[in-house]
Backbone:
């Protein structure tokens, strides 16, 4: 029997409000240290928390989008522990009744589709940030920036339904897409707007193995690497007759290995108790309904609809819907041109390449739905060939000129005038007696060479269909 | 009751004499709750908030944060741009 991994995720999603969860300080990332602080988020005596209604709105929205039940009454708790970046000595969080519970996301992997159940989602405040200058083991002091203290978070906890590193990765990707579609978080892992801890064990039978926690994974790649390494480590340890120690580990980014972290495990007693400064959060059915109405079409739904409605490939639909901006761009162009397949091709091959190479955002490019229609119309009317269309598109992307402008200025119009093409073909036949006689002797492959010569002379502007038709006629006449 | 554990959790360092006194206080408090246990609470919902106060929420609007000059007044705590504390990591 094979060892089977059991994986659960705990993800902190930073909610994109303008101000902190319990005070009016700005949540701006990268501000000068300790400039967005006040008595509330510094934990000064006597300061009282006042809940930001936007946090409740975003929390409800995210809960609903993750197919969760919204609890009409939820409560805040104090989670007590001492750490310099936690000025009050406790974190205000939710405990027994979170704002949202029991949901799921359906994740697609290369092998299958799978529902990953979500246990709970609760809103809470972030801590400050410790900064260590120089060698962490030598410095006598920690330096603290409280700008992050009180920034709103929603913690999402999954059931241990995940069985591979790929599933964990895809879950995170879909969660990020979802928060971005909703506009409730930037989802930027590198800026700490999405942070992930994983719990993992392996076992052969029904009884679960010893659980190991891996903390502070700060990129999608790290999550995948850490899990791949850890699954392997645990299986190898057990195969050799070893034992798994219950512990917290971290990923060494340089080596890709997970290593034990020194923690004060025995003090893991948070003495939760109800936050006396905040009465229960009560939401009405009307409120929840109202939020429900603001939820846009979600990534999975959009992906499926694009395949059904526009007949584009599943892979393209998946990639296009990765970003709501790209999805909207595609849909607008697909509707205006009536040619979704062509749009998806040019979009995924040429436009995305341009965007990635130039570090641009789809919203920044001037080539929009109107220009798409112009380009496809130029192909349709046989004004330009598909080959030329590609270079027109590239030129349009970099110069900002419209496709017809480029075709006009560069004289790229396809030659459909048979008289003109005939003249060129006569020249080619004259200049290439050897291939011509080879053709006449039955060597049909030289056609390609002769067409190539015609294209060279016309700089690719000859309509290939017309050119090859005339060429065959002329060659046959020589027989 | 393991007083040492709670000392650690509360980041306190009590003298032997203090430990004795507090141990007695805490034991008295816990015993008092034993009296409360005698009350029959079957079919009574747990009560957390007594006043029935309504949660007041604020709009997501920025308010003025503290001026750095006022933070700097506490020179022992505030150093340069940061709060400075004894390192805690690694015990």
Residues:
């Amino acid at each position: 029997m094979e060892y089977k991994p059991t994986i659960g995720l705990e993800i902190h999603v930073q909610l994109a409000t303008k101000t902190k969860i319990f005070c009016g300080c700005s949540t701006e990332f990268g501000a000068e240290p300790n400039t967005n602080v006040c008595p509330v988020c510094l934990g000064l005596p006597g300061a009282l928390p006042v809940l930001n209604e936007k946090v409740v709105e975003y929390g409800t929205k995210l809960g609903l989008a993750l197919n969760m039940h919204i609890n009409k009454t939820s409560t805040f708790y104090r989670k007590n522990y001492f750490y310099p970046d936690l000025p009050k000595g406790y974190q205000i969080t939710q405990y027994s009744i979170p704002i949202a519970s029991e949901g799921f996301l359906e994740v697609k992997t290369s092998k299958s589709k799978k529902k990953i159940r979500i246990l709970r989602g609760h809103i809470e405040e972030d801590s400050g940030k410790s900064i260590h200058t120089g060698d962490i083991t030598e410095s006598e002091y920690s330096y603290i920036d409280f700008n992050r203290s009180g920034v709103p978070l929603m913690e999402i906890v999954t059931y241990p339904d995940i069985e591979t590193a790929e599933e964990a990765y895809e879950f995170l990707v879909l969660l990020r897409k979802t928060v971005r579609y909703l506009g409730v978080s930037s989802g930027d892992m590198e800026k700490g707007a999405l942070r992930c801890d994983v719990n993992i064990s392996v076992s052969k039978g029904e009884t679960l193995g010893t659980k190991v926690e891996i903390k502070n994974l700060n990129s999608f790649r790290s999550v995948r690497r850490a899990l791949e390494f850890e699954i392997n480590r645990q299986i190898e340890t057990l195969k050799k007759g070893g034992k798994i120690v219950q512990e917290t580990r971290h990923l060494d980014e340089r080596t890709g290995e997970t290593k034990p972290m020194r923690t004060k495990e025995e003090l893991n007693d948070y003495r939760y108790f109800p936050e006396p400064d905040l009465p229960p959060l009560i939401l009405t059915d009307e409120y929840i309904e109202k939020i429900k109405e603001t939820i846009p079409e979600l990534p999975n739904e959009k992906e499926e609809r694009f395949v059904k409605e526009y007949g584009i490939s599943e892979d393209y639909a998946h990639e296009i819907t990765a970003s709501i901006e790209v999805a909207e761009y595609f849909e607008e162009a697909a509707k205006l041109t009536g040619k979704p397949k062509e749009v998806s091709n040019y979009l995924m091959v040429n436009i995305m390449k341009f965007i990635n190479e130039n570090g641009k955002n789809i919203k920044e490019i001037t080539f929009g739905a109107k220009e798409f229609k112009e380009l496809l119309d130029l192909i349709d009317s046989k004004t330009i060939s598909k080959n030329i269309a590609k270079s027109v598109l590239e030129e349009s992307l970099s110069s900002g000129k419209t496709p017809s402008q480029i075709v006009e200025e560069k004289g790229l119009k396809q030659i459909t005038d048979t008289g003109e093409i005939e003249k060129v073909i006569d020249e080619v036949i004259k200049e290439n007696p050897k291939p011509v006689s080879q053709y006449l002797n039955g060597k049909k492959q030289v056609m390609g060479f002769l067409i190539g010569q015609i294209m060279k002379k016309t700089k690719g502007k000859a309509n290939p269909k017309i050119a090859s038709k005339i060429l065959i006629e002329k060659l046959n006449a020589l027989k | 009751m393991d007083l040492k554990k709670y000392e650690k959790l509360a980041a306190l360092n009590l003298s032997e004499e203090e430990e004795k006194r507090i141990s007695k206080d805490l034991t008295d408090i816990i015993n008092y709750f034993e009296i409360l246990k005698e009350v029959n609470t079957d079919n009574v919902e747990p009560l957390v908030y007594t006043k029935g106060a309504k949660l007041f929420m604020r709009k997501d609007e920025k308010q003025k944060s503290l001026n750095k000059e006022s933070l700097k007044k506490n020179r022992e705590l505030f150093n340069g741009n940061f709060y400075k504390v004894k390192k805690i990591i690694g015990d």
Remarks:
- Residues 16-36 of chain B form the longest helix (21 residues).
